[in-house]
Specification:
Elements: E1 7-10, H1 16-23, E2 27-30, H2 36-43, E3 48-51, H3 59-64, E4 70-73, H4 83-89, E5 92-94, H5 101-117, H6 119-127, E6 146-150, H7 154-165, E7 169-173, H8 179-184, E8 188-189, H9 193-196, E9 202-205, H10 219-222, E10 230-233, H11 242-250, E11 256-259, E12 278-280, H12 289-307
Parallel strand pairs: 1-2, 1-3, 3-4, 4-5, 6-7, 6-9, 7-8, 9-10, 10-11, 11-12
Helix pairs in contact: 1-12, 5-7
């Protein structure tokens, strides 16, 4: 490889086609050291870095890479990248919006069904030879129920479509989307969370994690839910206050929850794990073959364009 070609470091493997696209114009090195210190040793001379989950793209990491021109995020969320620091340092930030929207929306639908059909509990009963689940009337149907969506973007609008097809009433809260557009996306617009929550049988969250959304769903708001409602989170851990959620379920106020994302990842000890009404998946909503391929291709192309001096369509700064 010519040393004149820009050096791009991958913080974890990406789709083979995206990797090959970068290699046509850059020297590409894979680094799987998730510590900042170990990663910087490999990436110190890089012009581009493509981040996955770890390490976090911090100011100190970017500052240590003196030749850095662009950082890419494999996927949609930007909460692991210090955007203000990148702006201050003059480093471009690109990502792959929409690449995993279908995958995450399908995962939300799956968790919704798992919750109201108590799939995990009944699977365990059946494996043990207990067919009592057939006579159990605790399961419920989604048709006729009310779904609330916080964040009606690329994922939220797809969830709205799925829920509508099941015969659910769909309400949406998104202060960044005009009411007429929310209606076009298949939801009844709501002015506030305070008016949204008391109407719901199921809540699903599809917002980024920001200072504004941190613990957006807290003890006060959870108390406003109707008895027996379910809560889903396939967006980012921290949007829901997990301690408050545990209390709301353990007290019998909420019917249960299904979480794909957590305040601490990988998930460590949590009182939520002791509740049979709570279902977990390990932040894999976006982990389908199709979504991973799209994300890898999209973000690799965005990094390539910045390094080539071309316009990147999905440049954040």
């Amino acid at each position: 490889m010519s040393p004149d070609r820009p050096l791009v470091i991958l913080a974890g493997p990406i789709n083979a086609a995206g990797h090959a696209n970068l290699e046509r114009e850059a020297r590409v090195v894979l680094c799987e050291d998730e510590t900042e210190a170990g990663f910087v040793k490999i990436a110190a001379e890089a012009q581009g870095i493509l981040f996955r989950a770890k390490p976090r793209c911090s100011e100190s990491l970017m500052a240590a890479c003196k030749n850095l021109k662009v950082v890419g995020r494999h996927g949609v969320g930007l909460d692991t990248i210090d955007i203000p620091a990148a702006t201050k340092l003059g480093i471009a930030v690109v990502h792959a919006p929409g690449s995993n929207s279908q995958a995450v929306a399908e995962h939300a639908l799956m968790l919704m069904l798992v919750s109201v059909k108590r799939t995990v509990q009944i699977d365990r009963m059946t494996r043990a030879g207990d067919w009592g689940g057939r006579r159990d009337s605790q399961n419920t149907e989604l048709a006729g129920k009310t779904l609330g969506i916080i964040g009606v973007g690329n994922v939220g609008r797809r969830v709205a479509k799925f829920a509508g097809a099941l015969g659910m009433r769909v309400l949406g809260y998104d202060p960044y989307v005009p009411e007429d557009e929310l209606k076009r996306r298949g939801v009844e617009p709501q002015k506030s969370l305070e008016t949204l929550l008391p109407q719901l049988d199921v809540l699903t969250c599809h917002t980024p994690l920001t200072p504004e959304t941190k613990h957006m769903v807290n003890a006060e708001l959870l108390s406003k839910f109707k008895q027996g409602a379910f809560v889903l989170n396939v967006a980012r851990g921290g949007i829901i206050d997990e301690k408050a959620l545990h209390q709301a379920i353990a007290s019998g106020h909420l019917g249960g929850a299904a979480l794909d994302t957590f305040e601490t990842e990988p998930l460590k000890e949590t009182p939520l794990a002791a509740l049979p009404q709570v279902h977990f998946t390990p932040h894999l909503g976006a982990s389908t073959r199709e979504a991973q391929e799209k994300a890898g291709l999209m973000v690799a192309e965005q990094v390539r364009k910045v390094l080539a001096g071309e316009k990147a369509e999905f440049r954040v700064v």
